[in-house]
Amino acid sequence: MILELCIFFFFVALVYSSAGFGGGSSYLALMALWGIDFQLMKSTALLCNVAVVAGGVYHFYKNGHLPLKKAWQLSLVSVPLAFVGSYLPLKQQTFFLLLGVALTLAAVFMCYRLFFEKSYTVKEAGSEHPVRYGIIGGAIGLLSGMTGIGGGIYLAPVLRLGKYDTAKNIAGLSSCFILVNSLSGLLGQAAKREIIFQPAFAGPLLLSVIIGGQLGARLSAAVLKPRWVEAATAVLILYAGVRMLAR
Q1: What is the value of pTM for the model shown?
Q2: Is the distance from CB of 26 to CB of 233 less than 8 angstroms?
Q3: What would the pLDDT profile of 126-159 be if each residue is shown by its tens digit?
């Protein structure tokens, strides 16, 4: 089981990191299909998110694709709400219901990004409505804390629809957003003493996503365009989400 998950986690990290994502939705979907305990799922997915996007944040910032002012505006409300969401007591049935909805929505957003998203021109400076995007970021942060998803898969399409910044900068912003919210979610779990780390289980998975994430972060969109892999991932997430809701 661990070997199969390691292979899947590696490819998920490789694909997601190239777009600034951590892959939390896919990690959760895979672990749900393998029947992993829900508390272990949340902790492991957030740890894998941090392992993947930490390197991505560095590379995006180094290459000038992480506008810090916008990153701060998006994260100001989301970080404390991610902590609150992670701290809230959730029964297993409620968690899987929320996760089913979250995964289904993530699949829809992925399909939009893959098949319907087109090029656009960025809005003029000063027209970004930071309060509006701060509230949106807060709502996504709350959901990410409750489910163990970093939130970038939701944030990026919203920023694209709002013409918030260039595609590269949005990838950098999403990467930073996932990092700070995943850390906040882990702190929330630690505060209520429900963070679970099993070295024999999480260790190999973390190594797999670190390797995949570092490779993906170094490959530009011009080099790595695995749309068929992303499409397959969207189908996987949709299947896992619908199956949870059906139960």
Answers
A1: 0.82
A2: yes
A3: 455 778 888 888 999 998 888 888 888 888 878 8
